[in-house]
Each structure stands twice: as structure tokens, then as C-alpha cells.
Amino acid sequence: MKRFLLAAITACAGAFCVAWLTSVPASAAPSPTQAPGVLEDIPLAEADIPATDLPRTDYPVDDLPTVESELPVEETDGGKTTESAGFLLRNSLRGLALTVVPLPQFPAFDAVITRESGWNVFAINPSSGAYGLGQALPAFKMSTHGWDWPFNPLTQIRWTYDYMVQRYGGPDQAWEFWQRNHWY
User: Fold this and answer.
1) Selection from 108, 159, 167, 99 nearest residue 134 by Cα
2) Which has more confidence, 118 or 89?
3) Which of 31-45, 47-61, 147-161 tops mean pLDDT?
4) Domain ranges in the chain?
5) Which of 13, 42, 63, 180 would you label with 141, given CA atoms 20 to 30 Å apart?
6) Region 158-162: what's the mean pLDDT?
7) What is the pLDDT of residues 28-53, one digit of tens each?
8) DSSP per-residue string spanning the chain
9) Integer Cα distance of 155 and 152 in angstroms
10) Does the pTM of the predicted model rise above 0.70?
11) Signal peptide position in this chain (predicted)?
């Protein structure tokens, strides 16, 4: 009964809105105005109008810049090379972490995260069930920093940094603890 009542109220409200919107005269809507003579005074040169939308092909081939990648590459079947997506993702997440973690503390933060999750936002410890970049246990503890903790690396980074500060005094001390115990 409640669903029927809710559906009836929604339908009536929708019908009322449609009737009201269609009854507003077009003259009541605001119209943009333009000062007379503003656009007409600007000269239009022929050079401003492209002759074609096709790209130019008269560039000398020898003058084209070359790009050499220093990124690691992986061999794939067929001898083709591709850039390592994992390498790019880890470095992107490290850059994101630099917006949260102070630079002097970043090497220790990076060392802990690299060993705990390999910078995998979805990492799950098979024995304990710890989850995410900082391996929160239980995982929902990260919800104190945002509802999107299961998939948002920034939320996980913020939580992990705050956890390191509150529990150990900072990433440096968390890294020292990790080196002694191989967990933190």
C-alpha cells in the first residue's frame, strides 16, 4: 500500500510540474541582449577563416620532434612493447600521496605502502583480511575519512597517513617498526 501511495504522490507531483512549466509564457523567459554595433565593428580577415579542417601535411619530416621514453617497457607476445601500466599507476598514486604526506616523510611512507600493498588500492591480505593501500584492519576504519574508502586512493592515503601519525608518531617511526616486525 505504501508503494502505491508513494507512486501516486510522485505521479501527481510530476503532472503538476509539467502543467506549470507548460503554462509559463515564452515572453516571461529572459533573453540575452547585445549592444548594437559591437560585433559589426570587428574586422574579419580572411586569414582568420581556415580553408580546410584537414591537418597540414607540408611540415618537413626531419624537423618533427622525437620523443624518447625512459619508462620501463615489457615484452608482449609478438615482440611488441608496451609501457608498464602498473609502473604508471604506482607513480600516479605516489604523486597523489605527495599532496598529503610532507616531503621529508614521504620515503618512509612510500616504503611502508610498497611493502604492505604494492600501491594496490584493492589489495587484500589473504590471511588477515586487511584492505587497501595501508592495509586497514578492519577495512571499514577508513570510512572515518570518506564514504568512498573502498575505491578512492586519496581517501586511503589520508587515512593511512593519519594512522601512521596517531599510532607511531609519523611515517618514519612506522617504517622503523615495519623493519623490525615486517608489519605495522
Assistant:
1) 159
2) 118
3) 147-161
4) 102-181
5) 180
6) 98
7) 544 555 555 555 555 555 445 555 55
8) -HHHHHHHHHHHHHHHHHHHHHHS-GGGS------TTTTTTS---GGGS-S-SSPP--S-GGGS------S-EEE-GGG-EEE-HHHHHHHHHHHHHTTTS-GGGHHHHHHHHHHHTTT-TT-B-TTT--BTTTTBSSGGGGGGG-TTTTT-HHHHHHHHHHHHHHHHSSHHHHHHHHHHHS--
9) 5
10) no
11) 1-28
Nearest to 90 by CA among 113, 124, 108: 113
Reading the block at residue 147, the C-alpha cell is: 564514504
The x, y and z cell numbers of residue 100, run together, are: 598529503
Cell of 152: 578512492
- Give the separation between CA 19 and CA 41, rounded to whole angstroms: 45
Residues in the chain: 184
The gap between the terminal CA atoms of the chain, to the nearest Å, is 54
Read off the C-alpha cell for 53: 579542417
